[in-house]
Amino acid sequence: MSDLQAFFAQNAGSDLSKEVVISERFKDNDGKSIPWKIHSITEAENEEYRKAATRKVKGKNGSQQSEIDQNIYLAKIIVASVSFPDLKNAELQKSYGVIGAEELLRKMLFPGEYATLVQQVQELNGFDQSLEDLMDEVKN
Fold first, then answer.
1. Which stretch of DSSP H or E encloses residue 121?
2. Terminus of the chain with fewer CB atoms < 10 Å: N or C?
3. Strand residue runs (E) in 17-59
């Protein structure tokens, strides 16, 4: 196989995935912490989430400027990257009294747990920069 063929779709590795313990609060019947399953997303998906989190705001002199809501953008990436638990499961959402996967995460996790999940998702997706650096890159 030539070096170029290694880049062909059929030869490229599929998405990356791993299991991580996000919280010690979620335990199985044996009392062991249940890991979350997360996987990588594609740049096409990332772009879709970035666009969904972008809105037009009035800038100086009345001009329109695009602005990304960092919280919405990050929540969309996280929801897309979590395979287990199924954040879109209606019963799970109902148990926390929310509708929507992003709202479920906010209600389900403590701030530190959410930060751990964010860090794990960012690392798996190849973001080795801080969120602020990432958002600056996205804006430009």
1. helix 111-124
2. C
3. 17-20, 36-39, 54-58
User: Are 52 and 76 a contacting pair, CB within 8 Å?
Assistant: yes
| pTM greater than 0.70 (yes/no) | yes
Question: What whole-number distance in Å separates Cα of residue 77 and Cα of residue 136?
Answer: 17
Helix pair angle (111-124, 131-139), 10° resolution: 60
pLDDT in tens, 62-79: 788 888 889 999 999 999
Domain chopping of the chain, boundaries: 40-139
Fold of 40-139: rbstp2171 (3.30.2220)
- Are 52 and 72 in contact, with CB atoms under 8 Å apart? yes
Residue labelled with tokens 């979590």:
82
All residues at 6 or more sequence positions from 116 whose CB lies less than 8 Å from its CB, including other chains: 20, 22, 23
Band the pLDDT of 50: cuts 50, 70, 90. very high
Q: Name which of 137, 109, 118, 108 is nearest 80 in CA terms.
A: 118
User: Which of residues 5 and 136 earns the better pLDDT score?
Assistant: 5
Residue that is written with structure tokens 């954040």 in the block: 87
